[in-house]
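Database export, one record per block. Field names are fixed; values are copied verbatim from the stored entry.
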Amino acid sequence: MRHERRRAGDTRDRGGRAVSRRDAFKAAAAVAAATLLPRAAHAQGGAAGGDAGTLEREWRQPPATNRPILLRGGTIVSLDPKVGDFARGDVLIDGKKIAGVGDQVKAPPQAQVIDASNTIIIPGFVDAHRHSWEGQLRRIIPDGAIAEYMATTHNGFARHYRPHDIYVGNLITALGCIDAGITCVIDNSHNSRSAAHSDAAVQALIDSGIRGVHASGAPAAGTWDQQWPQDLERLQKRFFTSTDQLITLRMFSAMSRDNWALARRLGIRITTESNAAGPEFEEFWNEKLLRSDNTFNHCQGWSDQVWQRIKDAGATVNVCPRSDAQYGLGEGVSAFQKALDHGITAGLSIDNEVSYGTDMFTEMRVAFNVQRAMATYRRARGEAKAGGLVSVRQVLESATIGGAACAGLLDKCGTLTPGKEADLVMIRTDDINVYPSNHAVGTVVSAADVRNIDTVIIGGRVRKFRGRMAGVNMEKFRQMADESREHLFKSAGYQLDVFSKGE
């Protein structure tokens, strides 16, 4: 294979003529067929102008045509056994869906061709659990444990969030996800202090262009309007009247019979934080309340019986390789191995950015290396059930398929399967940190990072192209983030010290 890297700002049209990166982005965005805003959001209005000019016209405008896109000549990791993988192959996108995956996919003559040589094409990453509203607080407590996290967020800044600040936090997080190759995020939104806060959280996800799940929850501290959980019904009618849109709704709640009953009456899924498993798990099991619409975060401290109950119920789980270690939750080691022991593909989740970054590559590497370290340690101690060594493919499946299962969206994303929606990422293999690439999955899991993400497509629409989100005004983005952060710091009486102890 010929390894020839074009300049990051260049691509070529079908006649071989060089075109600028910005023009190429516009062309690719114009032919993608998924509209940015769900119909309900257009009808109801929302946080118009809430992004303060961060999102430029080319980001917001609907596509002009139904012109297909052909990604030509990439290394394809489909993660679908029926589709297979291809050392050199094509992906055809027609509208918002994947129309074909193979070594030589025939495309209609009007297709826009994107050169995918020297890239690995994978399904988009899915972050199965994020508290997106905290976007302004990135790395504010890099050394913090759980007590510092609670003091800083729920008992600290959270009480001073205006609806606009919720919008800004969610937009910061969602755009950061897209830039990092995360095409779907489950937003565990537990600072909606009023209906207006909830509306702003949803609108930011819509405006960002990400595939997202708004998991609406109650604030954990301070005064609020007590509109939750009944406000879920209003949210559903306002924003979620269609299932054919990028953003979906669910409930974020502790184990509560009343709350869960409301969610099931509304027909929405339920996410629950679980850092320990009390007797209510067995009670809920006996009452047949544990079902396939349940998703659990962290999953620390679960007995084998609880894991078996979850598996038998068909519920989904996600684990937090960095968060559990950072905040000293449970044993400090994520439940990734426990999920493996019970034959469960757990999703991976970043949880928040208060202490670290929005990087699924690091999350995968922590899961991979800690699992192998612990398995080797247990073998060395002579433990009979030490567990086998996890593979890079298993970890990538957790970061994609496992997360899509948690989102309840396996029918739409998680694999590169014809008929599913086109959520995918192109990762460059000719950058200095990954070249030469001798193993596709190994390169993705064990070597690549955010700088190698060339192109991100969500629902058939190009959101990042040739390494640049060319529809996001970074000057306006910084102004928006700074204004909101300054309001929060002033309201909370916090003086920024960039060399603080970070606790």
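Remark 1: The chain has two domains: 10-31+67-123+419-472, 125-407.
Remark 2: The radius of gyration is 22 Å.
End of record.
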